[in-house]
Design brief:
The chain is built from 15 helices and 26 strands. It is an alpha/beta fold. The relative contact order is 0.09.
Length: about 550
């Protein structure tokens, strides 16, 4: 049994060196300027081992972290596995992040190395705090290290035997640090072990039912970002564990999706709710069922569109639930009939998972919800180790880790109901998180940036419904000077541009609503529940400026 992600890959590569590991479709190849086609397990292993030797010779070893700003390229996997072989943890960096976010990530993670595309090297240099040493290595489009790219790390002692790692990485060693938006401002760094990733792959390999994976036969297509656990843990590790082929797209392109599916001969697709909506929005075509997809694995499909999608395209969308923090320790999927299509059902909990649905606490331990009564989902692994398969901790935030695990259960912040047969249905999120096209956005993080505008006296950010993206970011703004209100269009553009300059484009407000006052509690805190209800009514009003056209992905 493998103890590390690299060992799992190496074992499979030696067993089937000629099998396809990665497939790059023509559209993704063109977007990235790389060669289209397949990379075999054996060829990938040769490249990974060569990278490992380069990193080892430069002095990198267990206990360090390396940032990877490599988008969804095949190079991401090559560098991840090479660094994992040495016990170096990787910090996937979302390519949409801008200055303020990069500064936080570099400083908080204490990464000592950043492997990046040449066009982002300057951004990382600018984001490096004074006094911190960060070696920034720019790779070519295929991920190759230039000859003199890695400078030896003088502060590290070199092993006398370069083939020996001391201490060697273990199943419990940190494999990756993934950042997830929380409710109190800055994103939290989730420390994830090798065990976390291996369990995710093995869970998927063995879950069965409608989600059965055939060893050595599946070709899994996903456009989801490698800075998220879905693509990095479930998609990638499921293929590694079962010897399948991963078809990693640069991102979701509704106009070329089916072309990519057919070209890659994909048999499984991963999705988020925004994708089925966009695909259904296209005109019906005689080739809608001309594909080899057996099932889709994802979350958030619009209840009104779920059955229509399956009827039109001919394969089931299996709704699932998990979080970065829970990993395979608490994952549920509707992989058996009846799936209750169109009801936001994500299946039943398996025997390896214990859960509670808890209503607003009137006692320290909370009160369990009744049948069909919504409650906050609390989860833990069954048996003696409640945290088996979960994240290790929030980096540098013991208080937040303890709070999340209060009473011996992980508190998810999601409202869920359970019917008499044990089927689970997603209701809403209690967390102050906006979910736009699959990206979690902290309202507090956006507010902290918008408050920097000279004319903003107070600001509160909330989700407003969006027919395509699920949520859109709406900023309620109180201005210092009332006489500035006659220029709402200009101020709204400035406020949005301020966010675009410092944050990923998707976090910027899609609407800016000018208010005389914000809804506040008696203690002068933002009344989040009232704000959420208000935000749903504001688009279309004269005081609400639509800034969605400004939100464009930066390259």
């Amino acid at each position: 049994m493998s103890d590390t992600v690299f060992q799992a890959f190496s074992t499979m590569a030696r067993a089937q060196p000629d099998a396809d590991f990665l497939f790059t479709d023509a559209h993704t190849a063109n977007a990235y300027g790389i060669r289209a086609g397949a990379l075999s397990y054996g060829d990938a292993l040769l490249r990974i081992e060569a990278l490992r030797e380069r990193y080892l010779a430069a002095g990198f070893s267990a206990g360090q972290r390396a940032g990877l700003l490599l988008e969804n390229r095949p190079a991401f996997f090559l560098h991840w596995f090479a660094l994992n072989a040495l016990g170096v943890s990787v910090v996937p960096i979302n390519g949409d992040l801008r200055s303020a976010e990069l500064r936080y990530l570099v400083e908080h993670s204490e990464m000592c190395l950043a492997v990046t595309l040449p066009e982002r090297a300057a951004d990382l240099r600018a984001a490096t705090p004074p006094g911190r040493t960060l070696q920034i290595v720019a790779v070519d489009p295929d991920g190759a290290l230039p000859a003199a790219a890695l400078a030896p790390l003088p502060s590290l002692a070199r092993p006398t035997d370069p083939a020996r790692l001391d201490p060697p990485p273990t199943v419990h060693s940190e494999c990756a640090l993934l950042y997830t938006s929380g409710t109190t401002g800055r994103p939290k760094g989730c420390v994830l072990s090798n065990d976390y990733f291996l369990r995710a792959g093995r869970w998927y390999a063995n879950v069965g039912g409608l989600a059965s994976l055939r060893p050595g036969s599946e070709r899994l297509i996903t456009p989801l970002p490698l800075s998220h656990m879905n693509a990095m843990a479930y998609s990638a590790m499921a293929m590694v564990v079962t010897g399948g082929c991963l078809v990693q797209l640069d991102r979701f392109h509704p106009g070329t999706w089916w072309r990519s599916v057919r070209e890659s001969r994909a048999t499984v697709a991963h999705y988020l709710g925004v994708m089925p909506a966009m695909l259904l929005g296209a005109a019906a075509d005689a080739a809608d069922r001309d594909h080899a997809l057996r099932f889709g694995f994802g979350a958030g499909v619009d209840k009104r569109q779920h059955a229509a999608f399956e009827a039109r395209f001919g394969f089931p969308l299996l709704e699932a639930w998990a979080m970065t923090e829970t990993g395979a320790g608490a994952v549920v999927i509707a992989n058996h009939e009846p799936r209750h299509v169109g009801q936001a059902s994500f299946g039943r909990a398996g025997a390896a998972l214990e859960l509670r649905l808890v209503t607003d606490a009137v006692s320290p331990a909370g009160i369990d919800a009744g049948i069909d009564q919504p409650g906050e989902l609390w989860v833990r692994a069954a048996g003696g180790d409640a945290r088996r398969g979960f994240f290790t901790e929030y980096l540098k935030d013991a208080d937040a880790t303890a709070e999340a695990w209060a009473d011996g259960w992980f508190h998810t912040g999601d409202l869920v109901r359970r019917d008499a047969q044990g089927n689970l249905y997603f209701v809403d999120r209690r967390k102050n998180v906006i979910r736009r096209s699959g990206e979690n956005i902290s309202a507090v993080e956006v507010e902290s940036v918008l408050a920097q505008h000279r004319q903003v006296k107070a600001v509160a950010v909330a989700a407003t419904p969006d027919a395509v993206r699920g949520d859109e970011v709406l900023a309620c703004v109180v201005l210092h000077a009332t006489d500035a209100a006659h220029e709402p269009q200009r101020i709204a553009r400035e406020i949005t541009q301020l966010a675009l300059d410092q944050l990923a484009y998707y976090k910027a407000p899609g609407y800016v609503a000018f208010m005389e006052a914000l809804p506040l509690t008696v203690s002068q805190k933002i009344q989040r529940a009232e704000l959420k209800q208000l935000a749903a009514t504001l688009p279309g009003r004269s005081n609400c400026i639509d800034t969605r056209a400004l939100k464009k992905r930066q390259r």
